[in-house]
Design goal:
The structure is a single chain. The chain is 19% helix and 28% strand. By secondary structure, it is α/β, with parallel strands linked by helices. A ten-stranded parallel β-sheet has the order 14-17-20-23-26-29-32-35-38-40, with no helix packed on it. Strands 13-16-19-22-25-28-31-34-37 form a nine-stranded parallel β-sheet, with no helix packed on it. The protein has a seven-stranded mixed β-sheet with strand order 5-4-1-6-10-7-11. Helix 1 packs across helix 5 and helix 6 crosses helix 7.
Length: 466
């Protein structure tokens, strides 16, 4: 196998997260940390089969989550970053003379642009290893980049092993590197065989010691300064995770604003990183957009709306609505207080009003479902009017059946359509009807008991009391 590859270190437990899940499955903007990192690797041209994740704590959960093509190896003992990369030796050997990207699985802001530029510099400089660094205001906890009198890379010194003078250095190691795969394999062997490399404060194999080994072999080690403080950021507990979420939230909002999206107030607005929004769309307060949601141009979303994996086309309005895996076509109005459940597709110029729930259904163009109705497992035609309080009765307790409503039909208030049933084109149902049989085109169906009026019943049964 040839071509560049990546090894992502994701074996840590993250005990301070106090979670049942691996640390790298903690989420920033509803997206697991490991997904951010994999996307960064893919953004610099790596295919999934050229990415290897080093697993450990919570291996089963992590492997179940990873994309199918991604390779995995297990680190059964946590003996440092160098030891973690050792577990991927066979993977590295399969990649011949390629370059290998090493990433931490809990660093979501190490973006694809940075790693791509770092690779370009790594290749152009002929380096055996390139450390991606950053200048930070508070370097506490990070490995320091030590330079020689010429300003060239000299070493990475971990916080635990740093002198007081070294602790004042603000350029730090991000934990991301490009290596020549062959050079890395050689250094891993020396790192394991030479006992001196475990004489550090943590008694671990530091991957950073690979730089010393390479330099002792006369190989070039370089640094690529990312110019972005956020690339080094990770989270060890829920409080730090919240900080990452806020940084990411504001970054994503700013990106959409600069692309022509109107977000007049960012209070309560949370937009996942993979959401796409068209120009001149307005996102109002309290809106949460998750997953692979796509919003067209000139739409209005919110206030107080949650959409996950939804498509909203140009000119549509979705107000105070909860939607999941639904599609809303052009110029349609949804809400307030509507719910769109998976499998729903709403046509153009449709009105879905307050307290309407639609599930696994198609709704044709120009249809109106204005209030207080449930449409489940139903195919609704075009220009249909569904009155208040209607329901498609789709579940017998054991099986679900579909309802079909033809074009231009009129469903009277408080109609229950007991599936499987079909209401024909231009057909009417009387208000308060329970429809259990198919209604032909152009017919009126009534399914209710005849009204009975008993005169003077109250006087006889409920005499007036003062």
């Amino acid at each position: 196998m040839t071509g560049n590859c990546a090894v992502i270190l994701a074996a840590g437990e993250g005990t301070r997260m106090k979670s049942k899940r691996p640390k790298v499955l903690a989420q920033v903007l509803f997206k697991p940390l490991i997904d951010w990192v994999i996307d960064s690797a893919k953004a610099c041209g790596l295919e999934e089969e050229n990415i290897c994740v080093v697993t450990g704590h919570g291996k089963e959960q992590l492997c179940a989550h990873l994309p199918q093509g991604v390779q995995t190896v297990e680190q059964t003992e946590r003996l440092g970053t160098g030891h973690a990369v050792m577990q991927a030796r066979e993977f590295l050997r399969r990649h011949g003379n390629a370059n290998v990207l090493i990433l931490g699985g809990d660093a979501p802001f190490m973006d694809g642009e940075t790693v791509s530029y770092a690779l370009e510099y790594h290749t152009r400089s002929g380096s055996a290893a390139t450390v991606i660094s950053a200048d930070v205001a508070d370097p506490t906890g990070y490995g320091r980049i030590v330079r020689d009198e010429n300003g060239d890379f000299s070493a990475i010194v971990e916080e635990k092993d740093a002198t007081d003078a070294q602790k004042q250095i603000r350029e730090v190691n991000s934990g991301a590197y490009w290596f020549s795969a062959q050079a890395l394999l050689i250094t891993l062997d020396q790192l394991e065989q030479n006992a001196k490399y475990r004489l550090n404060a943590a008694k671990e194999y530091y991957l950073t010691d690979a730089m010393e080994i390479l330099r002792s072999m006369g190989q070039r080690v370089s640094t690529f300064n990312s110019k972005s403080e956020t690339v080094v950021l990770g989270a060890n507990d829920r409080d730090q995770l919240a900080s990452l979420n806020e940084i990411a939230r504001l970054q994503v909002i700013r990106r959409h604003r600069l692309a022509g999206v109107s977000i007049p107030f960012d209070s309560g607005v949370v937009i996942a990183p993979d959401v796409r929004i068209g120009r001149d769309t307005e996102i109002l307060q309290g809106t949460v957009l998750k997953g692979d949601t796509v919003i067209g141009e000139d739409a209005v979303i919110g206030p107080n709306t949650v959409l996950e994996n939804c498509v909203v086309e140009d000119g549509a309005s979705v107000v105070q609505t909860f939607g999941t895996d639904a599609h809303v076509c052009r110029n349609t109005q949804i809400g307030p207080f509507a719910r769109l459940r998976p499998g729903t597709r709403i046509g153009e110029n449709v009105r879905v009003g307050n307290f309407v729930e639609i599930k696994n259904s198609t709704v044709g163009n120009e249809t109106k479902i204005s209030h207080l109705s449930y449409i489940g497992d139903t195919d609704v035609g075009e220009n249909v009017n569904v009155g208040s309080g209607c329901a498609t009765v789709n579940f017998t307790g054991k099986e679900k059946f579909r309802t079909v409503i033809g074009d231009h039909a009129f469903i009277g208030c408080d109609t229950s359509l007991v599936a499987p049933v079909r209401v024909g084109a231009r057909a009417y149902t009387g208000a308060g009807s329970t429809i259990t049989e198919d209604v032909p085109d152009d017919a009126l169906a009534l399914g209710r008991a005849r009204q009975v009026v008993k005169k003077d019943w109250v006087k006889v049964k409920k005499p007036y009391r003062k």
